[in-house]
Amino acid sequence: MALNLPDNRQAEWLSSASAGDTPVSGSAGWEFCRYVQSPAIKPLFLCGDSYSILQQLPSSSIDCAMTSPPYWGHREYDGGGIGQESSYREYIRDLLSIFGELRRVLKPTGSFWLNIGDSYQNKRLLGIPWRVALAMIDDQGWILRNEVIWNKVKGGPDNSKDKLRNIHEQVFHFVKDSSSYYYDADAIRSTPRSSKVVNGAVVSATGVSGIRYKRQIELSTELSESEKVAAIAALDKVLMDMSRGETPDFRMIIRGEQRTTHSDSGSVSGRAKELQQKGFYFLKYHPNGSKPSDVWEIIPEDTQGRAAHFAPYPEDLCKIPILATCPLDGVVLDPFCGTGTTMQVAHSLSRKSVGIDISQAYIQIAKERCTLLL
Questions:
Q1: How do residues 105-162 score in pLDDT, each as one tens digit?
Q2: Which residues partner with 216 through β-bridges?
Q3: How far apart (Å, rounded) are the C-alpha atoms in residues 195 and 248?
């Protein structure tokens, strides 16, 4: 099977994608190459075992991967496969073999977001998410940038009388290279609230006008007279920036009035050192809004595809990872795509995407589901 491309583009693609490593092979590999080179962003679905399919894809060809593999020992999925091993150690071993291939096909600028839940055995919480994450770090060289707590707000029925309800899961953000991975923080910032004018004074959205800070500076017994002059001049400049819309909000830390942000020791905190030397510093809010925190409150999917798939994750879980770590012309991969949530979100955000699943039934549902949006 050959790529349906001009010879020069085909050679360029194979050279850059394979880069002397595992070359493209198999029908899935050629289908992937044709898809990546086409102008269409309609999702591509490949049916088969994730490990085998990934082996056919060229190295360094994926920008962002996002997935939620079947959890160990929870339920039986159509097509069998991952999650039905006889022990959790075998489950982790099988996942790592797949994630090793995924690391190969990920670009040096790429990211991998992994949502994985835990399991109990003989009333013991096994700690599977962190067992997997640490093995990926120690054995495969992945770099963990964030552990996100997905607060599901509500959980399923729990009749246990000797433990708390479980309503959270982990989402891990891994990269291959900590210095060069793609990350667009501005794409995921919240819209900043605007300042306003009250009685002729500029007041931030959270009520900061500078009056209280000026009074604290004037009455300070911790600041010298020269430090007071410098502090008021700096405060006036920040207030002017706020009136021009360049700074939506700020906090001023003044020696003797507010605590330093992290530590009072100048040897371990640059902020503490600045406070010791100048007597003040500012914490300025980003003009484009704040970044999301590492705790996400997202209600699980209740009805979507439940007739055929027991555990589709919600679309909102995919939006931040794709917006932040997949460029607009990039490719998103889900090696356990199920009913296609990752692909649906990627398409809605104008990204190409590739979904792999062992179940032909799930692939068909995913195709039908995504086709409705195309």
A1: 999 999 999 999 999 999 999 999 999 999 999 999 999 999 999 999 877 777 888 9
A2: none
A3: 6
* List of the chain residues with pLDDT < 50: 1-13, 16-20, 266-268, 303-310
Closest among 33, 101, 110, 24 to 65, alpha carbons compared: 110
DSSP-derived letter for residue 262 is S
What does the H/E/C string look like for 58-119? Answer: CCCCEEEEEECCCCCCCCCCCCCCCCCCCCHHHHHHHHHHHHHHHHHHEEEEEEEEEEECCC
Angular region, 207: left φ>0, alpha ψ -120 to 50, beta rest: left
Fold for the domain defined by 7-188+291-371: Rossmann fold (3.40.50)
**Pairing state between β 280-284 and 250-254:** antiparallel
Could you give the CA distance from residue 234 to residue 238 in angstroms, rounded to a whole number? Answer: 6
3-state secondary structure of 305: coil
DSSP notation for 271-284: HHHHHHHHSEEEEE
Handedness of CA 43, 46, 47, 51 (dihedral sign): negative
Pairing mode, if any, of strands 295-297 and 62-67?
unpaired
Ranges assigned E (strand) in 126-220: 143-151, 168-175, 196-198, 201-203
Residue 50, token pair as written in the block: 């994730």
Which has the closest alpha carbon to 335: 15, 99, 141?
99
Q: Which pTM was predicted?
A: 0.76
Distance CA 258, CA 223 (A): 13
Domain boundaries, the chain: 7-188+291-371, 196-284
